[in-house]
Amino acid sequence: MSRHRFDRDIAELKRYFGTVIDWVSGVFTDVEGEMRGLEWGRLYEEYHKKSYDPAAVSAEMHRLYADPYVKNRRGVFEYVLGGSVDTKLLDVRVFDEATKKSVYAIQTAKAKEKDESNCPLCAVGHDAAKGKVWGFGEMDADHVAAWSKGGATLIKNCQMLCKTHNRAKGNR
């Protein structure tokens, strides 16, 4: 854009932006408010060669907008364009209840077999909590690999920790 700032004829630039706008309008047929301010030129350059079904895109957008775990609604656009792969764009950081309950059940069963705490950090400690089996409500879901460092919000990256250890672990 800056290389065109002194152009006397803006026809080429106008044509380019018209192409971008047409592409966006063809892919996203019923979303408007959240589209403002996005880097559509960059998104066009990266994704315009892929084919999209506007009805499927619309359905996925509505599904993601209704998902309470999606914290970044503006990231939904690039997430959908990129094949619904990069969950970082959605700022999804919370494990759902089914995942937490499943991980809790597995951890607790293994802990009881070994006669140790179902909090992995308590189990390696040296205090009275070393053998404590925590209730589901006494534990928090934790990203084994920190979310902020690329850890996904998937069951394979979830562990249940007692609330004390989860808060002490922080961003590690």
Question: Overview of this structure, please?
Answer:
The protein has 172 residues and is mostly helical. It has two domains: 2-90, no CATH class; 97-169, no CATH class. It is built from seven helices and two strands. The chain has a two-stranded antiparallel sheet with strand order 1-2. The mean pLDDT is 88.
Index terms:
7 helices; mainly alpha; 2 strands; 2 domains; 172 residues
The gist of it:
The protein is mainly alpha-helical. The protein has helices at 11-27, 40-47, 54-66, 75-81, 97-114, 120-123, 163-169; strands at 139-143, 158-162. Strands 1-2 form a two-stranded antiparallel ribbon.
Question: Which SSEs are present, and which pair or pack?
Answer:
Blueprint: H1 11-27, H2 40-47, H3 54-66, H4 75-81, H5 97-114, H6 120-123, E1 139-143, E2 158-162, H7 163-169
Antiparallel strand pairs: 1-2
Helix pairs in contact: 3-4
Q: Please state the average pLDDT score.
A: 88
- Count of the domains: 2
Q: Percent of residues in beta strands?
A: 5-15%
Backbone shape: elongated
The portion of residues assigned to helices is 40-55%
How far is it from the N-terminal to the C-terminal residue, by CA?
A: 41 Å
Strand order of the largest sheet: 1-2
